[in-house]
Amino acid sequence: xxxxxxxxxxxxxxxxxxxxxxxxxxxxxxxxxxxxxxxxxxxxxxxxxxxxxxxxxxxxxxxxxxxxxxxxxxxxxxxxxxxxxxxxxxxxxxxxxxxxxxxxxxxxxxxxxxxxxxxxxxxxxxxxxxxxxxxxxxxxxxxxxxxxxxxxxxxxxxxxxxxxxxxxxxxxxxxxxxxxxxxxxxxxxxxxxxxxxxxxxxxxxxxxxxxxxxxxxxxxxxxxxxxxxxxxxxxxxxxxxxxxxxxxxxxxxxxxxxxxxxxxxxxxxxxxxxxxxxxxxxxxxxxxxxxxxxxxxxxxxxxxxxxxxxxxxxxxxxxxxxxxxxxxxxxxxxxxxxxxxxxxxxxxxxxxxxxxxxxxxxx
Length: 363
Known about the structure:
Number of domains: 1
Protein name: Toxic anion resistance protein
Pfam families: TelA
InterPro entries: Toxic_anion-R_TelA
Family: Belongs to the TelA family.
Radius of gyration: 37 Å
Number of helices: 13
Mean pLDDT: 76
Structural class: mainly alpha
Organism: Metabacillus mangrovi
């Protein structure tokens, strides 16, 4: 597998490669012309070059860890907690008794006009407007989390590129160390026979081997930062995905259903009251005109039959409300878990950065 294939492989192949043994990956890279050229270009006599060998991808790993932390810190998803609490307060104002039939309500309508009904309609109209506002904000957070997930996917891809790039430098360094060590016996023999030039070359060679081995070790540690960042990114993505799914099912879908049901229930309530009022007016008119008990009884039966039951059941409204409340509770739990995982990921990455900095300082 050449370098271009490593860079263009799909996500499943990348994760499969990360799960493979290090020896298998290194064996493949040893056959790569690019890695062989890297090894050949290493000058063991240039100490500064040895100390900075693989510096660019190693620094990219350090900066990359910082970008992950910034992604975690810059997220404003925690603000969604306030929206959930506000939505909960709105939903708490829902009362199924408002839509239940009340004895003597028609008489009150005649005596007090529509003050009672206007108050009821005003209450739920205000609720509907407030739910609309929360719905818009929740949709924004859903889009933000989708964007965050895409950003994390890009970070995952970059992390893989840094990982494979570091592995190339590590393998090339190991190949160089092997090459230099193979030259030791000859120089040691010449130095032992009193060849001063061979003794000086032997000292330079040993120093180069030591520096190269130390640099390979440093690059291995940087590679571990990249390797361990991969599951951290996946944990963050998984938390976002779960929260997006919950928002979509419990809020983006259920809130419009609840609001539509609320509108239909209010409309049905209004129509029912108007029908009852008109029927009551007819009954009173007939009572005054006919004064006939039989007709009054028959008319009362007709009124009861006409009034019927509302087209939307109160139980359905209660169940819809319960689903939304349950969704808020589950979302809050997922959000708390997601926050905990981000904090854990943040601490672990900061620790890895600190370890890498200490290793750089010890060189």
